[in-house]
Design goal:
Layout lengths: L12 E6 L4 E9 L10 E8 L5 E8 L4 E8 L2 E6 L9 E9 L5
Parallel strand pairs: 1-3
Antiparallel strand pairs: 2-7, 3-4, 4-5, 5-6
Length: 105
């Protein structure tokens, strides 16, 4: 496409309240311009649950190591998934996250 979004510092994408589907995929392309000495998680994408307004999905970047963490709120609490490999600066990455929930979760 012809369009892109450049996020600086504490900027992030906030997906408005939506009704959670049983299966949902969020995908985007990511390009890190340079490494950051910052040592705290940076929220890249944040999605709220429609009924409670609680975060039910968040994608975070750990800048000093260039790793991603996906946080998902379930009925059992918060589940996290960390990437193993460090993302290299000045390269494009395609990120895809699929959530599948049952009626009991």
């Amino acid at each position: 496409g012809k369009f892109s979004l450049q996020l600086e510092s504490n900027s992030h994408i906030r997906i408005p309240s939506i009704q959670q589907q049983e299966t949902m995929t969020i995908k985007f392309w990511m390009f890190l311009t340079q490494p950051s000495p910052d040592d705290s998680w940076k929220s890249l994408l944040y999605m709220q649950e429609e009924s409670t307004r609680n975060s039910n999905l968040e994608v975070q970047l750990w800048p000093s190591e260039n790793r991603l963490q996906i946080r998902i709120l379930t009925s059992n609490g918060v589940e996290t998934l960390d990437t193993v490999a460090n993302l290299l600066p000045r390269k494009w990455y395609h990120i895809a996250i699929t959530t599948i929930s049952s009626k009991n979760e």
